[in-house]
Amino acid sequence: MKKIYFGVLLAVLVFGVTETQGILKSERPKRSFLIGISPWLVPQYDNNVQGFKDALAEGGFIEGKNVRFIEQNPQGDVQKQQEIIRSFINSKVDLIYVLTAPGAKIAQSLTKEIPIVFSLVQFPVEDGLVNSLEDSGNNLTGTRHYVPAAKQFFAFERVVPYIEKMAFVHEKGDVDSRQELKEFEGLLSQRDIKVIDVPASDLDDLKEKLNKQKDAFDSLYLACDPFVSNGADKVAITFAQENHKPDFACSLDETLNGALVGNVVNFYNVGKMSGKKAALILMGARPRWIRTQAPEESFVVINKKSAKELGIELP
Description:
The chain is α/β, with parallel strands linked by helices and 315 residues long. The protein has helices spanning 2-15, 21-27, 46-58, 78-90, 101-110, 149-159, 175-189, 203-212, 226-242, 252-256, 267-283, 304-309; strands at residues 33-38, 67-71, 95-99, 116-119, 140-142, 165-171, 194-200, 219-222, 247-249, 261-264, 299-302. The chain has a six-stranded mixed sheet with strand order 7-6-8-9-10-11, with helices on both faces.
């Protein structure tokens, strides 16, 4: 075990969590592991979980052979998530994998001992999940689906170069989208573009607020939170189309659903990054040794049908 411990520490210090698969295969402990997975809410996150499992398998941790998964989805319910994490603890899992900031915060509050790998969290430092991206200072590490506001807006303004007031659609109280709102406000204030905050508690609330303020903005941004991904995107996109207002989003699915532009990351690839971190932890690394990261690449996706309906000629 000393040899394993030293090998993993060297891998983390020298290679971070990039390409350590050869080390993982050669130094893998010969025992079985139990991992609890809680994806928090929407089916779109399934690709992330699959990427997580595939990366573990590439590292030699294969389902049915030397690793077993317990998967439970709380469907965005705080109490259910608490029950699920407690059941993982009682089952003595070796590692917990959670998606989204709300899901990760609950897991963090319930165990300080079991390693936690999180994913699809934009602002883990600001949310209090980790002390820094380099050293969490605790039992957590993870991956972000973060694309800077400047990068997202640049993709949008190349297609829609003249806007003055942008509605920011998000879930009321969501920790990640609050931070994202601050970032957009800081960016767009420098451009003399006003940001109209549209926080919603449910779909009916969102419909009411959008219709009530429809004359107050000329474009919409769909924030990166589970509420938007779980139906609010369709409400906002339908509103945008009916009122002839261009919109943009940070999710591929939302762009496929009709949003005009998206600067997005691949959820599967983000999941694979998480799986590599989990493999290092199962090898003996401590979560705080492993950097929290976001993918270097993002992809601009344009819905040509929406552009045509808006009368926009694509550059």
